[in-house]
Q: What sequence folds into this?
């Protein structure tokens, strides 16, 4: 049995031997990035460096990054999709390119992990005639030289084998970098019937057909072009951006197509089986158990990252996960879930990742959050059940309203109505659902871009103002100040902090006064790259929830590092002078927890 600890160690050791430095993972809640709710990829923190900034650790990097994709919620239930996952990545920032990357990844798969070469298939970019982009014959040639047979190499267009932050070449704005990519797939063979009730023919099957026979385990992106007015031109420094899902690679390493049967999920599933008295092997129950296991794990990691259930943004995503867990448990169990029912499953999640992401003390902080939300939703469920009992002639709109307002899935409502000999108009429900989905897409378009590092003028101003706010809070309220998080949009900044005593109105006015004084002083903003311990010694402030590499970037606001008003660990970017910020006003202040406070400024 190949364990996830084996895989982590082998991946880290392999890239260390290739002179790569580890980039510590960032939080699931990214700091100072208004374009995304969650960290959704390993490269998210590296966007500035892929665009040309110098990374403090050098040109060769690797890491294993926890990720969460809220847009994938409705896809959960098959053998491969999960909301929470870990992305194993390596990067070359203008150093090595295609030949080294493809041969090294092939070496890792076949020699380090011992994958059967006959089970590996690769894909390359087929070209894009419309944009005068040639096929990636170079990658094809490299794969052939590595011994991959011609019939194991497939070519696809830009929809499958091109990467840019804006998607396909047609969608890229001027100045945007991008390039072809090459994916590796693991073939589980014709004997695996993966997608329930979806038989397939091996004659028609190919790596990207989504039948379930093939599983993508790694993608090497070659960022070698920039879009211009006249088309695409080669970048002077070409980058490699590799990502491979840890869960998927572990499933392939154990020759099991179901990621939920790896040790990263199986202990959770065993506990769910006990609670609902159902077996995972039962095809009717498998999808629901997968949803519970995935959503519960996602919820545990979000709470650990400081997210709490609410009706807004990240809190709403967490609330939605826990409500879906409660509903699926009800469907399997036949009665409502109690707050303590899930404790053992939560304990299993923390045990799996103990000493990687969790400590024992986390258990007592996470369990009550889940329990309270489930208790709260149980009351909502009861209201929904009460309304449902009174419906005599159900319409599709009523069924949708139960889904939207009370969290009742259509299938559950359908089942309960069937018991009363009633049906509803499916078409009307679908119409209401599509209306809601269209509105949701419009409302969330600015928050689900996937971490495309907003560098707009307003964002840079707010980013730098946050540093001034942090230091001013220290000046006025003392050394107990500790940053708990921040969130920036183009319209305002939000800063969460711990303080031993509640700030007074007068104190906040003084904070605001100091910030605006420093803006008036027209202080320059610069950065230096230092060893982490040296940065601490000179008084640079750090966000305690972040893990920092041995070499760090410290931004300072002032004439010199020695005399700077503010010194802080930060990846940037910022304005070049405080005069660019403009006057700052603290317009809202609130208490958000025990000794925890939130400031809004614009």
A:
């Amino acid at each position: 049995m190949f364990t996830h600890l084996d895989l982590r160690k082998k991946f880290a050791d392999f890239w260390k031997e290739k002179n790569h430095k580890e980039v510590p993972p960032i939080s699931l809640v990214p700091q100072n990035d208004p374009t995304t709710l969650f960290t959704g990829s390993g490269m998210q923190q590296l966007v500035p460096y892929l665009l040309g900034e110098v990374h403090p650790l050098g040109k060769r990097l690797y890491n294993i990054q926890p990720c969460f994709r809220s847009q994938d919620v409705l896809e959960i239930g098959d053998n491969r999709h999960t909301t929470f996952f870990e992305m194993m990545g390596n990067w070359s920032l203008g150093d090595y390119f295609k030949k080294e990357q493809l041969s090294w990844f092939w070496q890792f798969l076949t020699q380090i992990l011992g994958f059967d070469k006959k089970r590996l298939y690769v894909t390359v970019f087929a070209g894009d005639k419309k944009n005068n982009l040639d096929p990636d014959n170079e990658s094809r040639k490299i794969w052939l030289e590595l011994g991959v047979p011609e019939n194991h190499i497939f070519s696809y267009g830009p929809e499958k084998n091109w990467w840019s932050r804006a998607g396909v070449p047609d969608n890229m704005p001027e100045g945007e970098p991008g390039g072809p990519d090459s994916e590796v797939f693991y073939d589980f063979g014709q004997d695996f019937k993966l997608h329930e009730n979806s038989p397939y023919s091996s004659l028609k099957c190919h790596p990207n057909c989504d039948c379930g026979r093939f599983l993508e385990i790694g993608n090497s992106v070659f960022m070698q072009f920039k879009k211009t007015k006249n088309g695409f031109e080669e970048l002077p420094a070409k980058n490699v951006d590799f990502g491979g899902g840890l869960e998927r690679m572990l499933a392939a390493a154990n020759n099991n197509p179901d990621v939920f049967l790896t040790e990263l999920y199986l202990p959770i599933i065993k506990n769910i089986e006990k609670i609902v008295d159902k077996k995972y092997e039962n095809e009717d129950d498998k999808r629901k158990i997968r949803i519970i296991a995935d959503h519960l794990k996602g919820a545990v990691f979000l709470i650990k990252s400081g997210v709490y259930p609410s009706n807004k943004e990240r809190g709403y995503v967490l609330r939605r996960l826990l409500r879906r867990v409660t509903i699926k448990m009800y469907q399997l169990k036949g009665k409502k879930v109690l707050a303590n029912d899930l404790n053992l499953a939560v304990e299993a999640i923390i045990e799996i990742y103990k000493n990687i992401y969790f400590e024992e003390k986390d258990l007592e902080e996470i369990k009550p959050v889940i329990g309270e939300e489930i208790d709260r939703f149980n009351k909502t469920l009861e209201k929904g059940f009460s309304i449902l009992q009174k419906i005599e002639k159900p319409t599709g709109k009523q069924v949708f309203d139960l889904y939207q307002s009370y969290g009742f899935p259509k299938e559950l409502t359908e089942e309960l109505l069937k018991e009363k000999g009633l049906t509803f108009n499916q078409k009307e429900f679908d119409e209401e659902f599509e209306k809601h989905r269209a509105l949701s897409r419009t409302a969330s378009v600015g928050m689900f871009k996937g971490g495309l590092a907003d560098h707009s003028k307003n964002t840079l101003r707010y980013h730098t103002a946050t540093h001034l706010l942090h230091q001013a809070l220290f000046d006025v309220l003392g050394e107990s100040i500790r940053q708990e998080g921040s969130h920036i949009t183009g319209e305002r900044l939000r800063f969460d902090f711990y303080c031993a005593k509640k700030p007074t109105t007068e104190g906040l006015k003084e904070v605001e006064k100091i910030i605006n004084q420093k803006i008036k002083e027209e202080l320059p903003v610069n950065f230096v790259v230092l060893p982490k311990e040296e940065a601490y010694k000179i008084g640079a402030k750090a966000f305690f929830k972040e893990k920092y590499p041995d070499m760090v970037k410290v931004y300072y606001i002032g004439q010199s590092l020695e005399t700077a008003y503010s010194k802080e660990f930060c990846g940037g970017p910022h304005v070049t002078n405080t005069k660019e910020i403009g006057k700052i006003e603290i317009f809202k202040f609130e208490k958000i927890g025990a000794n925890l406070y939130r400031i809004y400024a614009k």
Remarks:
- Residues 361-390 form the longest helix (30 residues).
- DSSP finds 17 helices and 16 strands in the chain.
- Residues 265-390 form one domain.
